[in-house]
Amino acid sequence: MENKVITVTAPLLPSLDDFLPYLQDIWQRKWLTNNGYYHQKLEKALCEYLKVPYISLFTNGTLPLICALQALRITGEVITTPYSFVATTHALWWNGIKPVFVDIDPITCNIDPDKIEAAITPKTTAIMPVHVYGRPCETERIQAIADKYGLKVIYDAAHAFGVEVNGNSILSAGDMSTLSFHATKVYNTVEGGALVCHDENTKKRIDYLKNFGFAGETTIVAPGINGKMDEIRSAYGLLNLQQVDAAIAARREIALKYREGLKEIGGIRFMDDMSGVRHNYSYFPVFVDAEDYGMTRDELYFKMKEQNILGRRYFYPLISEFSTYRGLESASPYNLPIATQMADSVICLPMYCGLTPQDTDKILNCIFQQG
Ligand SMILES: *Cc1c(COP(=O)(O)O)cnc(C)c1O
């Protein structure tokens, strides 16, 4: 299979045999959405798995970002990172909020707490960091800044499903955290997402917001949107939850194999495990130092492509480079030197449960043969 295409990711699918009885049950119940049986079951199961008290399911991972900002009544300016998937900043835009980009830390690729205070103005109301690649932000330092200036903190935890720090869920940090269950993520419900909060009243408000603002048959308490997760994907999600630990274990093996092979190669940097962290191995980014390695990032990226190995330049370009945002003062590359450098040197290697040892050998060989 010389020419087999190795994709950067592949979805975790439940067995069809297991899924069919769930579908038959849903057909019998004739209740397809609006907080149905499987929706309630999945919320409960996810609370247990993720070790959080309150979770609200959504139809994707972007609406919880938009609704978190609504639920907390965020306005004005929000401090965020340019090194993420565009949805993080788009959620601010959809709320009429001005994003203020702050540079990242070169080791973790997460927002650099040392640079947050200088970006705070009288209009700042919140900080929206991202646990990039599922690696925890410096949540205590970010919280200390938020407390000092009276700001809310909303974490985009789309990459951080199941990540724990010293036995605690990373989702317990900040005021709220959002998850994505998109097909390409560690845990998926085809499309899907969730918003995690810390008290019952807030959970209620979020549930109104995701259902047009309905708090009763004829009562609308807020101008809500439709963000509801349906029964079919909830049932699918219950099944995928049963195999996510095995999937994460398989990803860990692949990460260990990559690290073992890559440590011999000059000019290629990768990320190690952090102490006290339960990682989910959602991505495997490598950073190319063109001088030491002998090839640029793009040269390696296209060479891999020629050999049918589809890496992804995540996250390149930076969000701040897109036309909607590039006019902002904080979007200047001079304000974001580290993020610019990381975006210019990163390739995410293929990473998914089902990637074979032959695949990883082929990928490592390709990177090993410079030029
Ligand atoms: C995937 C992702 C999202 C959006 O999730 P969808 O489920 O695709 O809407 C948001 N933020 C980050 C960082 C993501 O990677």
TrEMBL record:
Positions of modified residues (N6-(pyridoxal phosphate)lysine): 185
GO BP terms, alphabetized: polysaccharide biosynthetic process
Superkingdom: Bacteria
Residues annotated as the enzyme's active site: 185
Keywords: Pyridoxal phosphate
GO molecular function, one term: pyridoxal phosphate binding
CDD domains xrefs: AHBA_syn (cd00616)
Cross-referenced SUPFAM superfamilies: PLP-dependent transferases
Family: Belongs to the DegT/DnrJ/EryC1 family.
UniProt-recorded name of the protein: dTDP-4-amino-4,6-dideoxygalactose transaminase
Source species: Bacteroides stercorirosoris
